[in-house]
């Protein structure tokens, strides 16, 4: 049995904060592999304009190439409709029933997990890796850890990381303003964005 961490998101673009969390899941979280899961349509970003699926997948592939234990999946991109996490995790479990899947989330997602589509089922059926982000009190997060553990029997691992305060929105704002993004995204992704002219006219 392998422990597989699932890090999902629109990755629009994939940035150093994502990479830091993925690596923390491998080291501190004890995952044998982290699977990056670009969303086709995120339920939290309906109606927003994004870079194309192929561009977002390509950027995730660049990030994954930096660590042999990080891979990218097209599962959500090749599925129809909104990318619901419960559906993704259930599909992965059916495909690989002898692996254990851990959903990797930041503080904001962790606190709101019960309100997600079939969030209670996620908490009952799968494991969680929490990567704290800036702006959240550890007391509040620990209170949620206690609730999820006692009410749903969820196994939660908290991984310490560099807690980089980087957002995809901020990166796109920099690009539109003609500012640099060095250090905010991996160098290969910066090159990809520049070569393909991404985000210069996207308004989100």
Keyword list:
8 helices; alpha/beta; globular; 40% helix; Rossmann fold; 15% strand; single chain; 204 residues; 6-stranded parallel beta sheet
List the helices and strands and how they pair.
Layout: E1 3-9, H1 16-27, E2 33-38, H2 53-64, E3 70-72, H3 85-95, E4 100-106, H4 107-112, H5 119-125, E5 127-131, H6 138-152, E6 156-158, H7 168-176, H8 187-196
Parallel strand pairs: 1-2, 1-4, 2-3, 4-5, 5-6
Give structural notes.
The structure is a single chain. The protein has 204 residues and is of the alpha/beta class. The protein has a single domain, classed as Rossmann fold (3-Layer(aba) Sandwich). Helix content is 40%, strand content 15%. The chain contains 8 helices and 6 strands; from the N terminus they run E-H-E-H-E-H-E-H-H-E-H-E-H-H. The longest helix is centred in the last third of the chain and has 15 residues, at 138-152. The mean pLDDT is 91.
């Amino acid at each position: 049995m392998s422990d597989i961490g699932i890090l999902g998101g629109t990755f629009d673009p994939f940035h150093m904060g994502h990479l830091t969390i993925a690596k923390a899941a491998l080291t501190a979280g004890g995952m044998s592999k982290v699977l990056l899961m670009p969303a086709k349509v995120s339920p939290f970003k309906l109606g927003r304009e994004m870079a194309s699926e192929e561009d977002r997948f390509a950027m995730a592939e660049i990030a994954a190439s930096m660590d042999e234990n990080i891979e990218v999946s097209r599962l959500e991109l090749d599925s129809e409709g909104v990318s619901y996490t419960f559906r993704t995790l259930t599909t992965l479990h059916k495909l690989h029933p002898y692996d254990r899947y851990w959903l990797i989330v930041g503080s904001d997602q962790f606190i709101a997990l019960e309100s997600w589509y079939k969030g209670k089922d996620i908490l009952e059926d799968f494991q969680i890796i929490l990567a704290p982000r800036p702006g959240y009190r550890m007391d509040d997060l620990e209170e949620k850890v206690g609730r999820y553990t006692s009410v749903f029997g969820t196994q939660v691992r908290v991984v310490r990381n560099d807690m980089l305060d980087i957002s995809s929105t901020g990166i796109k704002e920099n690009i539109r303003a003609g500012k640099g993004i060095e250090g905010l995204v991996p160098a290969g992704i910066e090159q990809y964005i520049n070569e393909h002219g991404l985000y210069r006219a996207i308004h989100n």
